Structure prediction request, 675 residues.
Amino acid sequence: MTEFIQQVFNGLSLGSIYALIALGYTMIYGILRFINFAHGDVFMIGAFSGYYLGIVFAFSTGGGFTSLAMAIAILLGAMLICSLLGFTIEKLVYKPLRKSPKLTILITAIGVSLFLEYGGQLVFGADPKSFPTLLENKPVVNLAGAVIGSNPLVVLITAGILMTVLRLIVMKTKIGTAMRAVSYNPTAASLMGININAVISFTFIIGSSLAGAAGILYGLNYPSIDPLMGILPGLKAFVAAVLGGIGNIPGAAIGGMIIGLLETFVTGYISPTYRDAIAFGILILILLFKPTGILGKKEIEKV
Amino acid sequence: MLALTAVIFLSFTGCNKGGGNEILIGEFASLTGPNATFGISSTNGLKLAVEEMNNNGGINGKQIKLITYDNQGKPSESQTVVQRLIKNDNVVAVIGEVASSNSKAGAPICQQNKIPMVTPASTNPEVTAIGDYIFRVCFIDPFQATVLTKFAINSLKVKRVAVLKDVKNAYSTGLADFFEKEFKAAGGEIIEVQSYSAGDKDFKAQLTAIKSKNPEAIFIPGYYTDVGLIAIQAREIGITVPLFGGDGWESEKLTEGKAKDALEGCYFSTHVSTENPDPAIQNFIKKYKEKYNAMPDAMSFLAYDAGLILFDAMKRAGSTEPEKVKNELAKTKDFMGVTGKISINEQRNAVKPAVILEIKGGQFKYKETVQP
Prediction:
């Protein structure tokens, strides 16, 4: 039982990071109907922003940056850097291609992804870096031998807060309403006076900042980062988005949690060899039996 | 006059491959990638050996030229660069690699082309079994497993041990298997075997499964990159027992960041201790520090020795003809390297003692030496 509780917690903590990345995939898909394969690499840039901000902060305060305020400042800093990156990528690369066939944008996204990965190796170096200790990890809960550390708990709570904020933005604000309108029907939305370009930029900013936050949380939980670290979590978050129903925001959150939990259970109880197979196995099953995902709505394509 | 003729003759036999007054030696190493310190340390050690040899007049009057290629720590790249060293650069001998998986990828190419290869630090027994042109200057994993078993039972005094190995890595799975065999034969119990793949970041599921079996120690025969993260996560979920491993832990990067506290009081076996007062070792450390402004690790020592025994064999052979060099390498006996006396046995392996180091405050402290 102890082992089970611990595994559930391990899984939720991993899943919340997948969920944050998956939200970006799903939002961009919802608006533009294309998969931004560079999203996993924006997540990597988030982690590296945290790494360098950490160094700068530690330097300016003479070492020791375990205060909560600084951790939050680094989190927000990484989110800002990533939102700028997302904004730039969209303006520079995707916008000129908006009228091109979907396949062109998809392949361009893969190009951007490779550019960030290998550009990252050039700039940051290829060897893994040790992520700074933003917050000291202390055991918080001890449930019959299952130790729950403060950092995984911080990850879970931060992810929860960010998802709630996103939900509020999308449901309660004017720009959120505009996003939903564009997602529903871009042409009609623009006829109603909605500035499509602004909405798309905003979507990239929000999605990328969530990926940046995921990068920091990932570094907090698994303090070793390298320029290729975004590939696998990115792909798995993509599966999570498809599992939850691509384009559906709560679906992405649920999908991320499910993938995190399943991966942890497969590793802990069956075999770690199947860890990566499980996510992609799910992708195949979902596409075969319920391509719209758990919460996705069936879309009727007019021919 | 006779001596002069001899020199001219020798220099002619020597230049059947490569340039006129140079001896070309190739090296493949992981200068970038996840295990980059392995390649950087070994290349630095080897360069030092080449430089010294050249300053002392080179081999049979010829200077050595070292060509080093980066394999990014990947077996596939290792094949490509070894091929390039032999076919394009016409090297007469190859030195490399630290990781057994990479050596196993490069060795068959050297064997096919009949070019001698000396690996500084690949401990998997299969590496030299590839053919009679492949040699090593380090001990092999069955011996390392015996050393670790003795240490676990006699010094750590543990009987119930869990194993966490890297399934993608020939070194890790090999060492894990040998250890399991030895440990059981010595009366110990392996209560859980879990695995991961190099590059994984999340080990909590495996560690939780291990924790539920209550081991007295955990054996992790992996590389330093993953070991640090494993240790951090083990402590996070409340595992307090000591962790121990093999020479793959050896890197100053092992105890970076949070891993420093997580690995306190853990042990690993390796080839040499920098605390050893032996003048040969201390002298090497001094030279290395002067040149690179960094501490050498076991890989630097071994690569230096790999260079020395190769040069020695070339001297004795009086030529750089690969077959003659190979024959002389096989005859190496009681050669004094910095890591001790090196004798190459029939399986082309070196027979040498191992040391156990303890991690204290992020430093590697000498614990004990185990003789073969």
In short: The first strand of chain A starts at residue 129 and ends at 130. The interface with chain B takes residues 2-3, 6-7, 10-11, 14, 121, 125-128, 130-133, 137, 139, 142, 145-147, 149, 151-152, 218, 221-224, 226, 229, 263-265, 267-269, 271-273, 275 of chain A (CB under 8 Å). The beta strands of chain A are 129-130, 139-143, 146-149, 224-225. The longest helix of chain A spans residues 2-32.
